[in-house]
Structures are given as C-alpha cells and as structure tokens.
Specification:
Bound molecules: adenosine-5'-triphosphate, magnesium ion
Structural class: alpha/beta
Largest sheet: 5 strands, parallel
Distance between the termini: 38 Å
Number of strands: 9
Shape: globular
Radius of gyration: 23 Å
Strand order of the largest sheet: 2-5-6-1-7
Strand content: 5-15%
Length: 355
C-alpha cells in the first residue's frame, strides 16, 4: 500500500485539503488589477495554496522561486524559460525582437525541456527590463498573465537595489498580476510594510494560518482507516495534538505513523514509535543547531518546550523579547496565539536532552 501522506513539496490533488476560502479569495483577487502578497511561517502551505488557486483560475501563469536564482541574469533567464513553457517556442523570434541581448535557447533532446541562458557578463538590469517588458507586451488588460514570485524576500540578496529597479518596472505594468510569497516573516513585512521600502504597500497582504482542525482530522482519519481500522480516530487526534495542526509536521508524523503500521504491525503505540524515529533521525542536525545557539536562546527554547513561563526573573524582559524576535526571524520559534518552538520534533529533542 502506498503511503497516503506527503510532506516537503507542493501538495495538490488528493494530498491537498481544505483552504477552500483561501483558494476562492486568491482566485477572486486575481480578477482585479492588483498584486497579492502572501506571508506565513515556513511550510504552512503558501506555495501549494497559490499553485492550486492559479491553476483553477485557468489563466496563463508562470512561477519562479527566487531562492533558486543566483543573479539578476539568472532570474531573467528563468522568467523567459517559464514564459516559453506556456507559449509556442516557434514564436520566439517575434517575442524577443526588442531584446538588447539575445538569449541562448536549447532544447534537451531527451526530455524536450527548454533551457534559456544569457551570455555571462551582460548587464542583468537590462535583461530583466527586456524580459518583463516582453511579457507585458504579450498581454492586455483584458487578458492578464499571473507571475508568481516565490520566496520573494530573496530579492534583497540577489543584487543591490534590485528591489528598487523591480518595483519601478512593475509599477508601470498593467497586464500582469504579481503574486509574491515569502516565509521570512519580518523580511517580508519589512519589504511591504516599511515606508522606506520601494515595495511599500505594493500589494494586498494576506496571511496564511494553520489548517483547521476538523478538516485536517477528516483528512488524516480517512487515510489512516485502512491500516488502523480500530483506532484511526484516536491516532488522528493525537497527531494533531502533537503538531498543533501544522500542515507540514502533521503530514510528516502521519506518514511515519503509517510507515510504523506497515513495518511493525504489532507496535502498540505507533505515534510514540514514529516520533521517536523522526527525532532520532534528525538528532545530528538538532545537536549542531543547538551548539550554535547562544545561551539565552537555549534557555528560552527550553522554557517554551516545557511550557514554563519566560517571565521568571532569570533574564530581563527586553532581553527575552529581542531574543524571541531574532529566533522568530530565523525560524526557530513561531507566534500564532503564543510563542512556540517551530518544529515539534526539535521541541521533543530539547525536552529529552533536558532529562
Ligand atoms: N492544503 C494542504 N493540505 C494538506 N497538506 C498541506 C497543505 N498545505 C501544505 N501542506 C503540507 O505542508 C507541506 C508544505 O507545503 P508548501 O510547500 O506549500 O508550504 P510553503 O509555505 O510554501 O513552505 P516553504 O516555507 O518551505 O516554502 C506540504 O508538503 C504538505 O505536507
Ligand atoms: Mg513555498
């Protein structure tokens, strides 16, 4: 039997649950001439929810992940490559006739995939201008294309002043809906909420929360039922209690519970066995991470992991607050209703190492 849970990549079709309102909202929003900014902590399902909404919109769309681009020239080449995935390559000459630098385009004979590159040392700012101007020209205000820029906060790292240049190009365009996603909470809010940032109030800010418990419960229990016909409901509840309905960690734990059910059918406590397996398999990473943390941060994580209050007089409130902010930025802690350790398996590792 194939494992019915999936974690780590974009999920769609049978692996995707709920987000009904969010998908409807994004689709509706894309019918306007505005741009959308979607922010959440890591692995909450941003890429998946946008991929679904964009696909259901039936419109032409291209997606580029800025985390995988190494320079402005590379970003331009990737945008162009994605553009030619949704347009006939035979019309290439027509499309690129205004380009100041001619790209090299090759087709992989085995897969048919196209690859686009520009000569090294050409000015990236010219390339990005030409590519985005071409995409704008290919559409009209009645028929807009959607460009999804994933991990958008990376724009600050790609090249100096890139945010300024991109913004000045994008604000003139009328035939493109941009959707910008990002996980580094404070960087994304800085880009779109800081008055000094070129992207200040450039798009509508949308935040994605965890998945609603009822839907996620249904999703888990339906899939656990064939393997655990007697206690699938209880197992689903325990998974969600443990992960707090975090989309990624819940799927990860459920996938491991399933694996235990297949490999050790007589295991009386598949949840604990699965947790133990995950914590052990990440042990080395956790240890390395821990060694690199400052003492204050270690103390805070231990308090959060064991559910003890932070205001104990051990550290000043201002010290705790700024350490929390930094750790939130680095992704170790998240804030939903209260501060918590982001990774429940790291939390477990911390608890075990305190014993
Ligand atoms: N709607 C959903 N239904 C079920 N599982 C989901 C859903 N959304 C996300 N997940 C789970 O979370 C994982 C991460 O999803 P996704 O990559 O879309 O999140 P993300 O916020 O873009 O993450 P990152 O911060 O790494 O870019 C998925 O692999 C899946 O296990
Ligand atoms: Mg993503």
């Amino acid at each position: 039997m194939e494992n019915p849970f999936k974690f780590g990549t974009i999920v769609e079709e049978e692996y995707f649950t709920d987000r009904v309102n969010e998908v409807a909202y994004i689709k509706q929003f894309l019918n306007s001439s505005n741009h959308l900014v979607l922010i959440s902590p890591r692995r909450f399902g941003k890429s998946s929810v946008v991929a679904k909404a964009v696909k259901e919109s039936g419109r032409k769309h291209i997606t580029v992940n800025l985390q995988q681009t190494t320079s402005v020239a590379d970003l331009s080449a990737k945008l162009l490559r994605e553009f030619f995935k949704v347009h006939p390559i035979s019309r290439m000459r027509h499309f690129i006739k205004h380009f100041r630098f001619i790209p090299t385009v090759s087709t992989n004979p085995m897969t048919g995939a196209i690859d686009v590159s520009f000569q090294p040392n050409v000015d990236g700012t010219v390339l990005i201008e030409d590519v985005l101007a071409m995409i704008e020209r290919a559409y009209s205000d009645k028929d807009r294309i959607i460009i999804v820029l994933d991990e958008f906060q990376e724009i600050l790292d790609i090249a100096p002043k890139m945010d300024k240049q991109l913004r000045s190009i994008m604000q003139e365009q009328k035939h493109i809906n941009y959707v910008m996603l990002g996980s580094q909470e404070s960087m994304m809010t800085d880009i779109f909420e800081n008055k000094k940032s070129p992207f200040y109030h450039f798009g509508e800010l949308m935040r994605l929360g965890k998945l609603p418990r009822d839907d996620f419960y249904k999703y888990l229990s339906e899939r656990l039922m064939p393997l655990f016909p007697k206690n699938y409901g209880e197992l689903s509840d325990r998974i969600l209690d443990y992960t707090g309905c975090h989309p990624y960690y819940s799927q990860q734990l459920a996938a491991n519970v399933w694996q235990v059910g297949i490999m050790q059918p007589n295991e009386g406590n598949p949840i604990d066995a699965a947790i133990d397996h995950i914590v052990k398999s990440h042990g080395l990473d956790y240890e390395r991470l821990w060694m690199n943390l400052k003492r204050t941060n270690r103390w805070i994580l231990q308090r959060l992991a064991s559910g003890k209050p932070l205001q104990s007089g051990e550290y000043r409130t201002s010290t705790i607050y700024s350490a929390l902010k930094r750790m939130q930025k680095d992704g170790y802690v998240i804030y939903s209703d209260c501060y918590e350790v982001e990774d429940p398996f790291f939390r477990q590792w911390i608890l075990e190492s305190m014993e």
